[in-house]
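$ fold --in a.seq
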Amino acid sequence: MIPNNRFELKQTSDHICVSFSTEHPVLSSAVFNGGGCTASNILIMKVAENFEDKKQVAVKPEKTLAEYCRQIQLSGTTVGMMTAASLESFRQVSRSSQGVKITAMVTAGISNARCAGDRAEWRTFQTDTTLTGTINIIILTTATMTPAAMVESLLLAAEAKTVAMRELGVKSLVSGKIATGTGTDAIAIANGVGPETIRYCGKHVLFGEMLASVVIEAITESLYVKLDLKSSR
């Protein structure tokens, strides 16, 4: 485990787990305890590419995650995501300024690359749970964000992901347009407990610049090997 102020990071061949010393408000699109909640952990669980064909996990992803959390003895509420991408893609990038720190943690695969607005292959409002090529993003900060700022941070992180896709030249497998992500991406933002209160985190303010830059760098570094590119960083 790697201690880092108020959280510990544990990486194994089966998962990435961020555990907080005290519960933190988390806003996410995660499949397990997604939405808004107060959490003790954020987990990215590795699954096989043929996840849906595995008899032992022929249940809803949230049930699989709940059982896995019990197996590894996580206490408290856990926000859980899944990926079929290699956990060797994990990258962590941080920025600090004026007493505020922002960290982005990413696992990334792009075999499921899509552009927003592509024709969906599933023509109903229900979908399967295919997890191939997912980009998962965890964002932590020492600052305290207002509820509106937390929502804005999700928007900015999604924009930053699109910038990384554009700079890397990743194309949608459906339309051939520059991808804006994959079909199964997830983002989790954990609020901090520091003295600095963040009310705005858009592109006009330092917090927004820092947040976007860590997401772009983490995704870019995560995908360099997969895309057989040489990093300039």
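$ fold --in b.seq
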Amino acid sequence: MDYQLQVITLPVSDVDKAAAFYTGQAGFTLDVDYHPAPGFRVVQLTPPGSACSIQIGTGLTDAPPGSARATYLAVTDIQAARQELTARGVTVSGIRHKSPIDDWQGGYEPCPDPQRRDYASFADFADPDGNTWVIQEIGYRPPQGA
């Protein structure tokens, strides 16, 4: 039996502001904006290339706005992802990597992992409510000709 993760619900205080952030700055695709009744609205958005979407809205969750923590986005080039997001106006932390990676005890050093190993490099950002995201590099391949 397969169990596919399809949707993650994020608690937000202002659905329109959050939707504008995710589409205009984070680059997510708007899939659905459905509000059939007062007190209920679901906006579904999908990160580029992802099989899993997020939902924001009204009447979806009783979690406090901004309480979602450390939702991961996997990317193949963390430097390019950070540059893309910052160019759109997203405040993204500096890139960091696990150190020492062979006997990792929770420490980090600035910049991507020198060997660009999978699961070793990270950066963070937050939406307008403070829901946090972690960008993690997996499957890096240097650009052709580099």
